[in-house]
Amino acid sequence: MKASKFFLILLAGCTLVSGCDTVRSFFGMPTSEDLQRLRIEQAAVKEAAVAEPAVDSVQIVKEEPKAAVNEDLTLAQLDKPYYVALGMFSQPSNAEKLASQLVDSGFDALKVHRPSGKILVLTCGSDSYQEVIAKRTDLLLQPFCPTDAAVYENTRITQ
């Protein structure tokens, strides 16, 4: 009993001294420095885009397809092995709010109805795990993105 208390106190002390970034880096998640650096880089890219001089000639702009919300999906209807999971909601209105924020930011949103009755909000489906990790990092820079956004593995396809 004393050894377990000592271990818990030691673990709590290490966490307090080293901070959350140590734990996040241990699990391969971006630390606060990484997120801050990405925000600075993104701001620099936006500034550079704004600072470019306007061209007086006519430009042909290819309109990209708008993002969309796919609703009322089930797990069996998912066609990619990896997605970024942003949240699971009991209230449909909360899932809809997050899905609309995704669409407004240019991401597709998938609302998957779980057997438990909860709604899982997914985005950025891909066949590549590394690509989903990169998209997750981009999403973490969005103001609406929860910090616990995770990679969802569609085991129906990956196994």
Give an overview in words.
Residues about 60-65 have low confidence and may be disordered. The protein folds into 2 domains: about 1-50, no CATH class; about 70-159, Sporulation related repeat (Alpha-Beta Plaits, 2-Layer Sandwich). The radius of gyration is 20 Å and the shape is globular. By secondary structure, the chain is of the alpha+beta class. The N and C termini lie far apart (about 40 Å). The protein is built from 6 helices and 5 strands, in the order αααββαββαβα. It has helices at about 1-20, 20-25, 30-50, 90-105, 130-140, 155-159; strands spanning about 70-75, 80-90, 110-115, 120-125, 150-155.
Give the biggest beta sheet. Answer: 5 strands, mixed
Task: Give the domain tally.
Answer: 2
Q: Roughly what is the average pLDDT, rounded to an integer?
A: 77
The amount of beta strand, in percent, is 15-25%
Spell out the CATH superfamily of the largest domain: Sporulation related repeat
Number of helices: 6
* CATH fold-level topology of the largest domain: Alpha-Beta Plaits
* CATH top-level class of the largest domain: Alpha Beta
Helix content: 40-55%
Give the N-terminus to C-terminus distance in angstroms.
Answer: 42 Å
Per CATH, the architecture of the largest domain is 2-Layer Sandwich
Shape: globular
- Listing every helix as H and every strand as E from the N terminus to the C terminus, the arrangement reads HHHEEHEEHEH
Number of strands: 5
Low-confidence stretches: 60-65
Q: How large, in whole angstroms, is the Cα Rg? A: 20 Å
Q: Helix/strand-derived class?
A: alpha+beta
Biggest sheet strand line-up: 1-3-4-2-5
